[in-house]
Amino acid sequence: MISASAPAKLILSGEHAVVYGAPALAAAVSPRAQVRVSELPKPEVVLLLDGIEQRLSILDCLDMQADLDDAHEAFLDGELEIQDVLESGRQLFFYLAAQWLQPDSRQGVKIELDSAIPIGAGLGSSAATIAAVASALAQFYGEPMDASQLIALTRFVERLQHGRGSAIDATTVVQGGVLYLHQDQVETLAPLQGPWWLVHSGQPQCSTGECVSQVRQQFADSSLWQTFSQVTQGLRQALLEHDQAGIISAISANQRLLEQIGVVPAPVQQFIRQLEAKGGAAKVCGAGAIRGDQAGAVLVYGVDPSDLALAAGYRCTALQGEQDGAHVAAG
């Protein structure tokens, strides 16, 4: 049996903008996705997720792989909406297993996935689970991957759920730590310091792919992405200098930009204004939401949000960074 894990991620600055060439800051955080992979005597793939077992023959798994590739091509051609590419997120793991399968394989594989990362909360749950499973499968089949290969495969599989997307989620969950990413350059910063919290505003009523697609339709050619870049660069400098006032200013500016592109529901905006009135700063992390009242994860800095989160019906936790990215467990 092979065991592996990968952390969740938070985007500190640059969500959406990174798709258009702007830099981003991201941090790997707890909790982690855990996976166990073991051999089966029959030519099938078994997925155990959330207590539910699902089986596919190897030939059916390979057929699913081809069908999903065709569906994604249809999305790229404008013939299909991104939310219609996958019938279920479970298909991602059968698709991933198919990367190593052969039609004449006599043995199969069992994938047991256990993730405490909330889905649709801006925490990179799909990237983390894909990276963890990919790490375990690569080791299981005797083809361990380096970080760049694992990032590339995670992005390739995740495109089925998020359309085109960016490298930020994959790079962060694979490498761990706090990262400044710009195009092909990745800079590792010191671990997060100071009063950081994570507030869960609830799962959005729309997928990341839907949010990314709508923002692209409305703002693809906007000059806003240059402003996003400046804000992210300012936050990077403030983090390097441990400048609390600079961190608060940059986070607040980022939040206003996210509101401009329409991915912050009104109740979440109101909650953030209350935090700002207490001297802190907060912003939506990840894609946000284009409908409904929930926006996933909200990053908070400078003030304890516990009382306001309780009043709003949100869950609140102190933020814990993860220095270790995706890896196979020793032993």
TrEMBL record:
PROSITE patterns: GHMP_KINASES_ATP. One of its GO terms (molecular function) is mevalonate kinase activity. It comes from the Bacteria. Residues 97-177 form the GHMP kinase N-terminal domain. Pathway: Isoprenoid biosynthesis; isopentenyl diphosphate biosynthesis via mevalonate pathway; isopentenyl diphosphate from (R)-mevalonate: step 1/3. The keyword Lyase does not apply. InterPro entries: GHMP_kinase_C_sf, GHMP_kinase_N_dom, GHMP_knse_ATP-bd_CS, Mev_gal_kin, Ribosomal_Su5_D2-typ_SF, Ribsml_uS5_D2-typ_fold_subgr. Its main location: cytoplasm. It is an enzyme of class 2 (transferase). Keywords: ATP-binding, Cytoplasm, Kinase, Lipid biosynthesis, Lipid metabolism, Magnesium, Nucleotide-binding, Transferase. It is found in: Cytoplasm. Its EC number is 2.7.1.36. Belongs to the GHMP kinase family. Mevalonate kinase subfamily. NCBIfam families: mevalon_kin. This is mevalonate kinase. It comes from Balneatrix alpica.
